[in-house]
Design a protein that fits this description.
Layout (H helix, E strand, L loop, with lengths): L1 H11 L17 H4 L5 E7 L5 H4 E2 L4 H6 L15 E2 L5 E2 L7 H5 L3 E8 L7 H10 L11 H7 L11 E4 L14 E3 L11 H14 L7 H20 L13 H11 L6 E6 L15 H20 L6 E7 L19 E7 L6 E3 L20 E2 H11 L26
């Protein structure tokens, strides 16, 4: 216990750079801009993950009445939830995360999400990535806004990476993000000596004195390709990680190699469980949670000492209906769950105001309500982990109030 307190005290004592926002720019110290800076990994569960079966309100009898075929059994029953606090429990497929919860490095937030009433995947995902709820005209993502406050350094070619089919809106407005379906494929797709020859040729073309945007982008792409190739190597399957979650291993390698990574984004699809969702075994949700739980636990163990400066935020666009539907699934809902994992997290708690699942407590009589705005969570992470002095401008049109902070971080 003393080692844990000492470690957390040291982390909490890291100094913050003082600066004004935007007009005067942020005057971060050289130490903050170099290797060893805080890293944020955002894991987006696209399709609206079912938070009620991820963090199970097993003490609420309404949960079992509303979900007769897909409810996770109570703790102590076969394949039951893993009790956390007498009120909530982890889905057993997330069992690998219980050690992090017990170590107070994992916090869970219930009834969190966007206050907008949309049940459109696309709208809700946009709002969560730009931070501008209800306004799809905003041209910059909140993560890009954070990156724009920090000056680039010579060692920061790979400040931001995203494993995604498309550039996430959260990074829109930051032009130097590396975006790829697979980080290992981000290189010249030729073999042998031809790759070396082409690389040398392109590097001469995009010389150090290049000034035009295309030349600058080309030079940075070549630099990023070489870094990725050097750090990731040729081995594709890292022990401890699920075979379909090797992207977590790649991000961990970049963090440990101190290449200047500050923000990473992973898209995980397949969470839209309208049919045959499943309870503990069978169905799509248990399979997805099995991959997520193993990947996050392996990522935590893999990072070793580097875990102290890393925070993982797991989120989804909205939750799902409290009541199961007629096909053994759930439909688009409202309030949901967020997972916050990291060395500086004040975890071991289920946070947020979860009112219960009685009909009068549900949003529009069908969904978990939103009692914690997701922007309050993001703002606390930006200010306390990423050391942004004032996160107000990252979330247009939203009035931040520090009285609403959850106390997520040391």
């Amino acid at each position: 216990m003393s080692a844990l307190l000492s470690r957390r005290s040291l982390l909490g004592g890291v100094g913050c750079g003082a600066a004004a926002w935007l007009d005067t720019r942020l005057a971060f110290s050289a130490e903050q801009a170099s290797a060893g800076a805080p890293v944020l990994l955002c894991v987006f569960l696209r399709g609206a993950a079912d938070g009620l079966n991820m963090v199970v309100p097993h003490a609420d009898p309404e949960y079992y009445r509303l979900r007769r075929s897909i409810a996770v059994p109570r703790p102590g029953e076969p394949r039951g939830a893993i009790d956390l606090d007498g009120r909530f429990g982890l889905h057993p497929r997330l069992g690998p995360l219980k050690a992090a919860f017990d170590a107070k490095e994992l916090a869970l937030i219930h009834a969190v999400g966007s206050p907008h009433v949309t049940r459109s995947h696309f709208e809700a995902q946009d709002y969560m990535q730009t931070g501008a709820v209800g306004d799809r005209s905003v041209a910059r993502g909140w993560l890009a806004g954070y990156l724009s406050t920090r000056p680039a350094t010579d060692a920061s070619t790979l400040r931001a990476v995203a494993v995604s089919a498309l550039s996430p809106l959260a990074l829109r407005g930051y032009r130097d993000a590396l975006v790829a379906d697979n980080l290992r494929d981000f290189r010249l797709n030729v073999g042998g000596g031809l790759e070396t020859a082409l690389t040398d040729g392109f590097r001469r073309l995009y010389g150090a004195d290049a000034s035009r945007a295309a030349e600058r982008a080309g030079r940075r792409a070549l630099d990023a390709s070489q870094i990725v190739k050097r750090v990731l190597g040729r081995r594709r399957n890292v022990a401890g990680y699920p075979r379909d979650a090797q992207d977590f291993a790649d991000v961990a390698k970049l963090i440990k190699a101190d290449v200047g990574l500050e923000a990473a984004w992973l898209d995980l699809g397949g969470w839209d469980t309208h049919r045959q969702q499943g309870s503990t075994d069978g169905g799509e949700l248990p399979r997805q949670l099995d991959r997520l739980g193993q990947a996050l636990a392996a990522f935590r163990a893999d990072l070793g000492p580097s875990f102290e400066r890393v925070l993982v935020l797991v989120m989804s666009e909205f939750g799902r209906t409290a009541r199961e539907n007629g096909t053994g699934g759930t439909d688009h809902g409202h309030g949901n769950v967020m997972l916050v994992l990291g060395g500086g997290v004040q975890g071991g708690r289920v946070l947020g105001d979860f009112p219960g699942l009685a009909s009068e407590q549900l949003f529009e009589g069908r969904d978990v309500p939103v009692t914690t705005d997701f922007r309050d969570v993001l703002a606390e992470i930006c200010e306390r982990h990423l050391r942004v002095p004032d996160a107000s401008s990252l979330f247009p049109g939203f009035e931040l109030d520090r009285q609403r902070r959850l106390g997520l971080l040391i």
